[in-house]
Design a protein that fits this description.
Layout lengths: L6 E2 L5 E5 L2 E4 L2 E4 L1 E5 L2 E5 L13 H5 L6 E5 L9 H9 L3 E5 L1 H13 L4 E5 L4
Parallel strand pairs: 7-8, 7-9
Antiparallel strand pairs: 1-6, 2-3, 3-4, 5-6, 5-9
Length: 125
């Protein structure tokens, strides 16, 4: 049996979240997600304290195709570290932290409008 890193090669709305994971594209994923133009990836981040340039590396690699990054910080809104906010501004990405639920809903709306949106979503119970 081959075990690969979780990756869905496309864009899809998030159908549900909670119980430590997400449902999208008739699949489920346990853990956090990173939704960027190249696809939806399992994201090995569980707490806003782990936010760093390295954690968002894939976002920075795809920055030319992203205008808005929605950052779902869990059950509650948690601000982004100042240095990370500055880094997003440098690559002309509007990074907007909010609760994961709000980020999922906003992501789905912007995705349906075919906007250049990405999302970094922490899983919630």
């Amino acid at each position: 049996m081959e075990i690969r890193k979780a990756h869905f090669p496309g864009r899809a709305p998030i159908d549900a979240y909670g119980d430590g994971g997400f449902r999208f594209a008739n699949m489920s994923h346990l853990g956090s997600l990173l939704c960027v133009p190249s696809g939806i990836y399992g994201w090995n981040i569980g707490d806003p304290a782990e936010f760093s340039d390295e954690a968002f590396q894939r976002v920075f690699e795809e920055h030319a195709d992203i205008e808005v990054l929605l950052v779902g910080t869990g059950k509650d809104l948690r601000p982004l570290p100042a240095d990370l906010k500055f880094r997003f501004r440098e690559v002309e990405i509007l990074a907007d932290p909010m609760s994961t639920g709000a980020a999922v809903r906003t992501f789905n709306v912007l995705l349906s409008e075919d906007r250049a949106v990405a999302a970094a979503l922490l899983a919630v119970d």
